[in-house]
Structures are given as C-alpha cells and as structure tokens.
Description:
elongated, Rossmann fold
Amino acid sequence: xxxxxxxxxxxxxxxxxxxxxxxxxxxxxxxxxxxxxxxxxxxxxxxxxxxxxxxxxxxxxxxxxxxxxxxxxxxxxxxxxxxxxxxxxxxxxxxxxxxxxxxxxxxxxxxxxxxxxxxxxxxxxxxxxxxxxxxxxxxxxxxxxxxxxxxxxxxxxxxxxxxxxxxxxxxxxxxxxxxxxxxxxxxxxxxxxxxxxxxxxxxxxxxxxxxxxxxxxxxxxxxxxxxxxxxxxxxxxxxxxxxxxxxxxxxxxxxxxxxxxxxxxxxxxxxxxxxxxxxxxxxxxxxxxxxxxxxx
Length: 296
C-alpha cells in the first residue's frame, strides 16, 4: 500500500473507531478491566464510619487526633494485542475479511486503552513471531500499531498460537490484559492458553465467516488452503461433501469452546459483517463488555 493511501486508511480508521470508543466503550472498558491492586493515595482526618484498620498510627500520635490512610485502585494497565496474521485471516465472503476486522478491533481496543491512560503493545504472529511492538502510551504509538496491522506483509502463512503465547510469556512479565485475535484454526495451544489465563486477564476474540463451512451446490470447484497452498477439487453437489461441511463447523466450535471453558478463558465470537451493517459484528463484543461489567 502506498504511503499516502496508508495514511488515509489509518486516518479513516482512527475517526471511525474513536467514535465507537466514545459512544460505546468509554465507560465499559474502565469498569470491565481492573487495575493491579490498591495503592496509597493520602492521609486525612478520621471520620465516623471509617475502617479503623486504616488508621495511620504514626500521624495520629504526632498530631494528637486520629488520621487514616486512603487507598485508591491503581488503574494503569498494560494491554497486549496478539493478532493472527496467517493466511486464513485473509478470508471473507461478506463486507470485510477477518483481517480487516482484526485491524478495526485492534484500533478500537487500543484507543479504549489510550483513553483510559493505559499502555498498549502488539504481537503479530503466524507460525512465527512476525512483529513485536512493546507497550507504550502515546497516541502516535497507537497509530503506529494500526499502521503496522493494516500494511504488514507476513513472511509466513501458517498459524502457531502456542508459539505466540509462549513468546508473550517471555517478553511480558507484569500482569496484563491480553486480547488474542484469531480464527483459531490451529491446535496444540490448550496448555499454554490456560497458563496465560492464570497469570493474565486473557480474552480470546474468535473471528469467523459463515461461508467457511457451507457451500452452495455449485458442482465441481477448486479449493485452495491459504496457509499451505494445497489445492483440491471437490464436488459441492455431492450430498456426502455437503454433510461433511455442515457437521464440521459445529464440532470445531464445540471443541474450541471446551478449550476456553477448561482454561477459564473469556471468549467473544465475531462473524464477518454484511455490507449494510459495517460495524454490526461489534454487537457481541459490546454485549460481552456489559455482561462482564455486571460480574464485577
């Protein structure tokens, strides 16, 4: 993408997603994700009803009447976006591809974090770590992340979620909020997913397109695996072929939901949107934020 086209696309995405942040996520983000704990704020005079366990005895003894310590929640958070850049993310039969949705989601989450004065970092991965952007706060940093996702050309096409999570564990030491954005067309990541969830606040965002598992009866068609390049001709008019595609999606979905449930990982499932509802895919995300806010 040419630099002028890229800057225009980044600007358009900034305007659209920041509007959504202000309209939808401004209050939800703050209430959903908590800080690391309580930190000392100030000392003030004791008032009736205050918890006597918070009395500052040194100040009380020095001034001759009771004072208490006041604590506030430490709000600064670190947000890490783990974004799948593999070949299957390029798939999309409706208004947008999964990759385009991943870019928009990353912008929305990054601007939500920025609005809350949190740091944001990014890990782009395929079956290798393609790019690591350490967490920082500034708006220019957020725009850099968006630019990278929009214009990044990965070296590889396959997917290795386990490797991405292992790398995250290596480079990010403090407790963070982790958004893993992928179509999860991979396996072997269950154990490390559970381990990351125990230490960090992990949210898996599953991107999918309904047409990936259904086909019209169109006779012989050639299919190409976007990650391996392998091609195969299938007869979509064959009832057995239709049955395989019809049953495979529910099985894969059930297996993935079981992984999330076992690992105690929150998940959000987002379908590629229709052309008439550009940001319609965000409804499940908004619903997730509201439900999670109610849990606290």
